[in-house]
UniProtKB/TrEMBL annotation:
CDD domains: ABC_PstB_phosphate_transporter. GO terms for molecular function: ATP binding; ATP hydrolysis activity; phosphate transmembrane transporter activity. GO terms for cellular component: membrane. This is ABC-type phosphate transport system, ATPase component. Keywords: ATP-binding, Cell membrane, Membrane, Nucleotide-binding, Phosphate transport, Transport. Pfam families: ABC_tran. The lineage of its organism: Bacteria, Pseudomonadati, Pseudomonadota, Betaproteobacteria, Burkholderiales. Signal peptide: none annotated. InterPro entries: AAA+_ATPase, ABC_transporter-like_ATP-bd, ABC_transporter-like_CS, P-loop_NTPase, PstB-like. Residues 11-255 form the ABC transporter domain.
């Protein structure tokens, strides 16, 4: 069931601007709330700032010198601003995990891919890791397909299975928010379908923010949709409303394929 208005806020971006190291401003004072246990889709033409916005949520931009945030992203329930310099980006990435466009398993076994985040966190007990690996693989709807070959190399899996493995890897540390950057653009329609179904199930446990170029996908998987253009948030609302009766002409032009 899709809610029609944001309920509890999991994360709130407030006056969020972002500048790359070369001085280019990619985000312009964005205000956006991610509703708890809902899927929010980011749509908009190429270069409008979708990935830049997504990557603020796990402090990916900190990996490159000269990048600069302004404003804040407050996450609940503890009301912390994850962009604050006092907040350790590694901690943020434990709470907010990312799944990328192309499946990117590590050159390790299926088991070790999922166990990775736990080991980084210092978890050593074998039984606990076993349990968490199974739970994450079940959560990513992959357990039944791999339970008899957990120690095989992850690269032996199909593209769709590799992407579900990356979702399991992200789930293993019990994140509160999952970020998806065009997670199905490298997959065939069947694998895409299974990832979309999975996203529908995962939102019971986590809050989801997804970038997609595929309008049908945004309409299928998301509860709320944000339309961006040239670094600005043009319109935000319930997905059904954005796709049927958008208020802004720029949104209408985009979803009806008049540009972009
Ligand atoms: N590392 C970088 N340094 C400088 N400018 C960048 C960098 N990465 C992206 N940009 C610029 O920031 C703007 C937003 O890019 P971004 O990748 O966030 O857009 P997008 O909406 O995700 O695009 P696409 O749909 O094509 O992936 C663009 O003008 C882009 O050229």
């Amino acid at each position: 069931m899709k809610p029609t208005a944001p309920t509890e806020a999991k994360a709130v971006a407030q006056n969020l601007s972002f500048y790359y190291g070369n001085g280019a401003q990619a985000l312009k004072s964005i205000n956006l709330t991610l509703a708890m246990n809902c899927v929010t889709a980011l749509i908009g033409p190429s270069g409008c700032g979708k990935s830049t916005f997504l990557r603020c949520f796990n402090r990916m931009h900190d990996l490159y010198p000269g990048n600069r945030y302004e404003g804040q992203i407050v996450i609940n329930p503890d009301s912390i601003n994850i962009l604050s310099p006092e907040i350790d980006p590694i901690e943020v990435r434990m709470r907010i995990s990312m799944v990328f466009q192309k499946p990117n398993p590590f050159p390790k076994s299926i088991y070790e891919n999922v166990a990775y985040g736990l080991r980084v966190r210092g978890v050593r007990q074998r039984a606990l890791i076993d349990d968490k690996v199974e739970e994450a693989l079940r959560g990513a709807a992959l357990w039944d397909e791999v339970k008899d070959r957990l120690h095989a190399l992850a690269f032996n899996l199909s593209g769709g299975q590799q992407q579900r493995l990356c979702i399991a890897r992200a789930l293993a540390t019990d994140p509160e928010i999952l970020l998806f950057d065009e997670p199905t653009s490298a997959l065939d329609p069947i694998a895409t379908d299974s990832i979309e179904n999975l996203i529908g199930q995962l939102k019971n446990k986590v809050t989801i923010l997804i970038v997609t170029h595929n309008m049908h996908q945004a309409a299928r998987v998301s509860d709320f949709t944000a339309f961006m253009h040239m670094g600005e948030l043009v319109e935000f609302g319930a997905t059904d409303v954005i796709f049927t009766t958008p208020k802004q002409k720029r949104t209408e032009d985009y979803i009806t394929g008049r540009y972009g």
